[in-house]
Fold Methyltransferase domain protein.
Amino acid sequence: MNKLFEGEFQFNLASRPNWETGARHRETLMKYLTGLVGDRQGRLCVLGAGNCNDLDLKRLLQVYSEVHLVDLDESALEYGVQSQEVADDPRVFRYVRDLTGAGEELAGFEAASTLPETDLSEIIQRFSQPAALDLPGPFDVVCSTCVLSQLILQAVNAVGDTHPQFEQLMVAIRSQHFQTIVDLIKEGGAGLVVSDFVSSESATDLKDVPDFQFTQYLSQLLSSRNFFHGVHPGVLFSQLKGNAPLAGLVQNVEMLPPWRWDLGSRQYAVAAIRFHRLPRS
């Protein structure tokens, strides 16, 4: 058993009862996803769909012709479509995939109790290549929903954040994920990258901050470097701007206002980036 994957399975299992508490997060995400499809009923792909607690699948099927759900956890996907009564809808597709394509290699490092001097160059190179997900793309809209932090957490758990090459590994995972998203979007289509970036576990007063002070509060957390590894919203935004390798493939890159995600015992701050894939000139 891949212990890194098992951690994600346990998280999904524990968070299944949180449909009601996550209503505000789900409504925000639905607003953006339904707004991206435009006048035509396009095809949607969701990376990291998990239990689908942040997706209203029936509502999505009102505006999309197909909904493609991708996650590492087969039981979570099954729970999601069954609980929302769309398991038999022919427009809903499920794919069990390791979004990096290198989860087994990372697990091998974790199982071997990696020493600080262990060279990670080979596995970093592995992440520099796009993951072969074998999905029926391209899609009109692709959404990554709070999965990037989990992918990076796999690296933290496998090699430790004090490893001298951890930063390189983290950057490679992040870059690969953005490349995967952009590659899956058809020309003229849209992308939405949603990421949790801090929780009430390290920011204990997160849940008590009034809405009108929320953005300022988050800015203070970021300034004090209180955020998850590799998912500072500004850094994520920079993946698609300026001289970034992917910047020439996208347009209308926009950072959306942050919001809260309530998981009952823990709250998260969430950021999102919306953009469009450039059409062929």
Q: What stands out?
A: The first strand starts at residue 43 and ends at 47. The chain has ten helices and seven strands.
